[in-house]
Structures are given as structure tokens and as C-alpha cells.
Automatic annotation (TrEMBL):
Protein name per Swiss-Prot or TrEMBL: Uncharacterized protein
Entry superkingdom: Bacteria
Source taxonomy: Bacteria, Bacillati, Actinomycetota, Actinomycetes, Mycobacteriales
Gene3D superfamilies in alphabetical order: 1.10.30.50
């Protein structure tokens, strides 16, 4: 993995997006008894679109950012659908997916082919200066993938199977890999855009949560919690934050099941910490969540949040510090 990430000759960020998709899928899904995991190409495509969805916004005065050396075709296609759906009140990729909006369905169908022809074909090729490159299919068997494959061929293949041990390995190292992939991705975007981009600003832009998309949740979640902070139970002042219970940087899930209203004190102190399990369970057990999801058009994502929590807590070593409240941590027992 390190070799794949460090090879400095990427033509686009699509490989990184694909790796990140595989990491997230492994955190959220249980492997088969033999340790392998079958992953639909469709699912990988949905995840990739969700990563790019906020990234195709206009960045400061730089306009839309390039994600490859030659043009912006994938981001442009996503941006087009994003703008179209925003006028229909659909703001996140997850919401578009859940609504099965025709424009989104078409986008997935067309990008699925690109994903198969490019990142899935080339993901496991490590470039060498002398002999072009060698492929070592250590993640999954890619022998049926090639850059001229057709829609029919992709339909027939349908899935990839991560080799036994790979899902567990990706899950256990997910926090490290995610940080590594994001930093490589940010560096690539700086390179592809040949502009004076501030890497720190850029990282927040590319991988931060899209706050404006979640603003509609402030009032409904406040009501649901009787105006009390989800974590400390104190009455909230006007400064209400929408907090990801399973932190966004740990697993990016913008679903109502993973979102609560918190005061700034708790929200800022918790930051990217993994909370104690009790907080996650309380968030998942709230009633009326479907009603909030329906009125705000932010998807619920209950099952994803719940299985991501199982994946994260299941791979944490004993002694990891979990956030319970402001400056209050508890040691995890595995
Ligand atoms: Zn609080």
C-alpha cells in the first residue's frame, strides 16, 4: 500500500479515490468466513462520486480544480449533476443516491465504466522507472480488467473480491491509510493545478464536511433534543453545532443517524475523537429520526452508521482513548 501511495507518477486522483472507497467499505462491512469480501463495482462508484461531490465546488478564485493531468472530465460530469440536483433541493451525493434521481443514476452508470477501465485496471500497478511497471494483484484479481473494456463486460464482472485478509488489514489500518491517502490526494491536486494553492486550506476544502449542506438539520435536531446539547445535556445557546458522532475524519457519513446537535464547547473538544460507544448507541436509538430525514431530505444512513461503528470499535486496540465529555476520556476495552 505504501508503495502504491508513494509512487509519484499518478495521472489522476482516481486511484486514490478508489483506495479510499475500499478502505471505507472494509470498515463498514464484515468479511466472509474465509476473510475475503465481495465488493460491487457499483458501490465503489457511489463512494467515489460521494468523495468528489463536495470537491467539484469552486475553490476560492481558482475555479473548479483539476483532478488529473489532462482536463477535468470526471469532476465536470459530477459537477453538472450536482448543480442540477441542487436546484431540486438535493444537496449531498448520499441524498441523490437514496432518491434514485435519474440524473444521478445515469451518472453512476457512465462513471462505472470509467472506474473499471482506469483505477480498477491500474490500481495495483507500481510504476518503475526502468521497466514501465509491474502489477501485483495483492488486493484483488484484476486480470479481467483492461482499459478498453465495454459496458457489457463490466456488467458481467459486476464485483471485485478482496483477497482473504485484505478487508481485515484495511480495516485495522484505516485511520492511518485515510490520513495518508488524503495527504497524497491534496499534494496531487496541487500538482495538477499548477497554481499557488495553500495546502492547508485545500485539505479542508477537499475533505472537510460541507457545513452548508447540513444547516437544515439545526432546527429539527434542536427540537428533537429539547434544545439540550446531545453530549452534556446543558441548554444550548444560539451557537449550535451539527456534530458527527462517528467523527467525519474517522468515517465520512453525512446521515441523520450519525448527526446530533451539540454546543460549541462539546463539539470543539470532541473534534476528531472517537466517542464512547454509549454516545453512538444513544444516537442510533433516537426515535423520530426518519421524520427528520424526510423533512430535511438528508438521508438517514442508519445501517451504514451502525455497521461503521461496529467496524471501528471492533478494530480498536485496548487502551485507546474514547471521548466521553469535555476533557473526559475513557480507556477502550477490546
Ligand atoms: Zn455540551
Amino acid at each position: 500500500m505504501v508503495q502504491l501511495l508513494e509512487s509519484g507518477r499518478r495521472e489522476s486522483t482516481y486511484k486514490l479515490a478508489t483506495l479510499l472507497a475500499l478502505v471505507d467499505i472494509c470498515v463498514e462491512n464484515r468479511a466472509a468466513p474465509d476473510g475475503s469480501l465481495m465488493v460491487p463495482i457499483n458501490e465503489i462508484t457511489h463512494r467515489i462520486v460521494a468523495y468528489y461531490w463536495p470537491q467539484v465546488r469552486v475553490f476560492n478564485d481558482h475555479g473548479r480544480l483539476s483532478q488529473n493531468k489532462s482536463g477535468r472530465s470526471v469532476p465536470d460530469r459530477i459537477a453538472e449533476v450536482r448543480i442540477q440536483l441542487a436546484t431540486a433541493g438535493v444537496r449531498t451525493a448520499e441524498a441523490a443516491r437514496e432518491a434514485e434521481h435519474p440524473a444521478y443514476v445515469r451518472l453512476i452508470r457512465s462513471l462505472r465504466l470509467t472506474v473499471a477501465q482506469q483505477p480498477l485496471t491500474h490500481l495495483q500497478t507500481v510504476p518503475h522507472v526502468r521497466n514501465g511497471g509491474t502489477r501485483d494483484d495483492f488486493l484483488f484479481d484484476a486480470s479481467r480488467f483492461h482499459k478498453k473494456m465495454t459496458v457489457d463486460q463490466v456488467d458481467r464482472i459486476g464485483t471485485i473480491t478482496l483477497r482473504p485478509g485484505i478487508p481485515e488489514g484495511l480495516r485495522r489500518t484505516s485511520a492511518l491509510l485515510r490520513a495518508f491517502i488524503r495527504s497524497a490526494w491534496t499534494q496531487d491536486v496541487v500538482t495538477f493545478n499548477r497554481a499557488e494553492l495553500d495546502a492547508e486550506d485545500l485539505d479542508g476544502f477537499l475533505f472537510g464536511t460541507d457545513r452548508t449542506a447540513l444547516r437544515s438539520l439545526v432546527e429539527p435536531l434542536r427540537d428533537l433534543q429539547d434544545d439540550l446539547c446531545f453530549y452534556c445535556g446543558r441548554r444550548m445557546a444560539s451557537d449550535v453545532h451539527i456534530d458527527h458522532v462517528m467523527a467525519w475524519s474517522v468515517i465520512p457519513i453525512d446521515g441523520v443517524a450519525n448527526l446530533v446537535a451539540a454546543d460549541s464547547r462539546c463539539n470543539l473538544d470532541k473534534s476528531a475523537s472517537i466517542p464512547v460507544r454509549v454516545h453512538v448507541d444513544r444516537a442510533l436509538e433516537r426515535s423520530d429520526l426518519s421524520e427528520v430525514a424526510r423533512t430535511t431530505r438528508v438521508p438517514l444512513l442508519h445501517r451504514r452508521t451502525s455497521s461503521a461503528a461496529d467496524g471501528v470499535f471492533g478494530s480498536l486496540p485496548s487502551g485507546s482513548l474514547l471521548w466521553r465529555g469535555v476533557r473526559d476520556y475513557e480507556s477502550h476495552i477490546a
